[in-house]
Amino acid sequence: KGIKTAVDNKEFFLVYQPKWNVRDDCLAGFEALLRWNHPQFGLVSPGEFIPIAEKTRSIIPLTLWVLEEVSNQSKLWQKRGFAQPISVNFSARMFELEDLAKQVQFILQKVGLDPCLLEIEITETMILEDVERVTDQLEKIRALGIIISMDDFGTGYSSIGMLDQIPLDTLKLDRLFINDIETTSKRTIVHAIITMANSLNLHVIAEGVEVQEHIDILTELGCYIMQGYFYSKPMRVKEVEAWVQEQRKVSYKSIE
Questions:
Q1: Fewer CB under 10 Å: which end of the chain, C or N?
Q2: Which residues 6+ apart lie within 8 Å of 248 measured at CB?
Q3: Which ranges constitute the DSSP H helices of the chain?
Q4: pTM for the complete prediction?
Q5: How confident is the model at residue 37 (pLDDT cuts 50, 70, 90)?
């Protein structure tokens, strides 16, 4: 009830964190992240409200709301000249919807958004909970033209043996690998993941990139799309638009 009321009262809002392609030196998309501005408690951490939303199943209408908000925002940015895929995180609960792909398609058609501008992020644990059901649902979603990304890859639950069966476009390297990537062991693991991803025609994104050294090592290992505080914290819409303008000015200067 609290979360539904919060949606109705427009207490939830989205922030967007950019992904950067270092090889082409250009924007590669955004990840949409949900925030709750509670009238009594102020900003409530997703770590607090997401588990409650999961437990009560209110995560389903909440995620559908996020999908529509993101689609509308993406359409608006497309009109303003910077069309970029925006990723939305799905929880395991979403796959309880038998008509999930149809609901996603309905939102895209309602907004008039090209499916290639939407990306769905899932986790390894989610797939392993019910491989057959989730894989079937993902195939239907991906058939619409939507990008599918596996978040937090390599964190404790190995789905490596099933990577060739899961409909995926992208692997997101968890920040645990990036934090101390300068160590030989972490470099070796990351290199192995990138090599494997390349052989399966999967893109690789590194999360939690905070310093230039991370970028240098990742680039050397063959990972070219980065996300993290080095580029930007998650931003409100107006901040995103100002940030994009600033990046354009910088790139124009470098061309000159």
A1: C
A2: none
A3: 2-8, 46-56, 59-79, 100-111, 124-129, 131-143, 175-179, 184-199, 212-221, 237-255
A4: 0.92
A5: very high
